[in-house]
Specification:
Layout lengths: L11 H4 L12 E6 L13 H20 L2 E7 L13 E11 L3 E12 L4 E15 L16 H20 L9 H13 L1
Bound molecules: coenzyme A.
Coenzyme A (COA) binds next to β2, β5 and α3.
């Protein structure tokens, strides 16, 4: 997802790019109604449509964190655990969980609700990575992120391993360049 236009018009003084941010500073919520055009012939929401909404809400959260255009660099493996039905609402909640140099990891949760019943259920979650671009469309430094709660700290700590895994899968690094991931793999081996 490439967010441009309005964001590019931010005055530099409004960007406040380098102060330390909290996860809550980027918290972004988006609600959609599942319409007939969004569904397959069984009346269930298309996976691709959900990915589109996830990418939009994730890009908004990333841009809130860095006050730059944010482009999608990667998403983790996403599985569709529960179908979402025609006529239900889908609420997507996104926040930056860790920032690196020019990239940010955004955690996105998806909740579905039948409005007439008012019971919300979690259907999905995912981690998307976005890169901040400057006015020349080159990756640019993003503000640091300070986790405050223990949940935020846990998401922050595990983010480095997810980043290394994504870079390894994209063949951008070798396993020998990812010591934290190597340690995690050893832990996984002992857990099996
Ligand atoms: C994302 C993009 C800007 C990265 O550009 P690049 O020249 O590879 O830049 P770099 O190698 O310096 O990487 C920039 C950052 O992205 C991160 N990154 C790049 N690929 C990544 C991946 N697959 N997974 C996780 N992070 C990744 C790098 O680790 C780096 O992060 P850091 O600066 O915080 O350490 C570039 O690949 C791009 O424009 N991709 C297309 C984006 C797009 O159009 N998305 C919509 C999909 S259709």
């Amino acid at each position: 997802m490439l967010l441009s236009g309005a964001l590019n018009t931010f005055a530099p003084q409004l960007r406040n790019t380098m102060s330390v941010k909290r996860p809550s500073d980027s918290l972004t919520t988006m609600t959609q109604l599942v319409m007939p055009n969004d569904t397959n012939i069984l009346g269930k929401l298309f996976g691709g449509q959900l990915l589109h909404w996830m990418d939009v809400v994730g890009a908004l959260a990333a841009s809130k964190h860095c006050r730059h255009v944010a482009v999608t660099a990667a998403a983790n493996n996403i599985s569709f655990k529960e179908p979402i039905e025609l006529g239900e609402t889908v609420t997507l909640v996104a926040k930056v969980v860790r920032s690196f140099n020019t990239s940010m990891e955004v955690y996105i949760e998806v909740f579905a609700e039948k409005l007439t019943e008012g019971i919300s259920r979690k259907c999905n979650d995912a981690y998307f990575t976005y890169v901040a671009l400057d006015d020349n469309k080159r990756p640019t430094k993003v503000p640091d992120l300070q986790p405050l709660t223990s949940d935020e700290q846990e998401l922050f700590d595990k983010s480095l391993i997810r980043k290394q895994l994504k870079l390894l899968m994209a063949k951008k690094i070798k396993l020998s360049q990812a010591p934290e991931l190597q340690q995690q793999i050893k832990k996984w081996e002992t857990e099996v």
